[in-house]
Amino acid sequence: LATTRSIQISRRVWSVPQRPFRVCSHNRELRKGVTGGTMQELRERAAHALFLSAVSLSLVCEEDGTEVDSDEFLLTLPDNTVLMALEPGQTWSPEPVITFSTTNIKPRTGRDIARVTFDLYRLNPRDVFGSLSVKATFQGLYSVSADFRCLGPKKVLRSALRVASAMLQAVGHMLITSASIMRRIIEGSDSWHSTYDRGDSAQITEYWE
To answer: Is the separation of the CB atoms in 23 and 34 below 8 Å?
Structure first.
């Protein structure tokens, strides 16, 4: 019995949580947002996004060229880390630094102030709208990033039902209030007519007497 239980437990497959990453090509010209929980998933999705072959594809950190070769090391990386995909024969190289000559200084334009990058991805293939990652760099010195994760179809349906339920409750409350006001107006009108009829009958009795 114990052996049977151990076999059943070993056969269970636990789904690895999906995390967002950004991948770029060797020359940094193409950048895409992908998700993955393991190195195998990340290699396959990076190859699909960058139109590369997943065979012998390696991933390194775009910032310093550190090779990402295990799932344990992948877990230590923060979300939205930029990874460079390298095919056989390609090596990592630092991003070229643009130098400016001090003899010909031009005033800053809108292009030099800020740079905003938008990455649209899906944590789950069943997601309706997907998620959005936004990264803004100001004057090349300060960077701010935000990750907006949208809901799946079930959560979207639940939220829509909650909103519809709240609206129906509000409409029902308004109808009950309106019916109560109309009833008071009708009852007030009936009591006024009955009082008026009693006064007329009293005047007719006095006249005949």
So the answer is: yes
Helices (H) and strands (E) in the chain, counts: 5, 8
Distance between CA atoms of residues 198 and 207, nearest Å: 14
Query: Under a CB-based contact definition with an 8 Å cutoff, are residues 130 and 121 in contact?
Result: yes
Residue 131 and residue 206 in one domain: no
Q: Supply the CATH number for residue 76's domain.
A: 3.10.20.10
pLDDT digits (tens, 9 = 90+) for 44-72: 999 999 989 888 899 999 988 999 989 99
From residue 84, give the alpha-carbon distance in Å to each of 41, 63, 98, 156, 197. Answer: 15, 9, 20, 34, 94
Residues 134 and 42 in one domain: yes
pTM of the predicted model, to two decimals? 0.45
**Closest listed residue to residue 77, CA positions, set 32, 132, 117, 37:** 37
- Under 8 Å between Cβ of 42 and 110: no
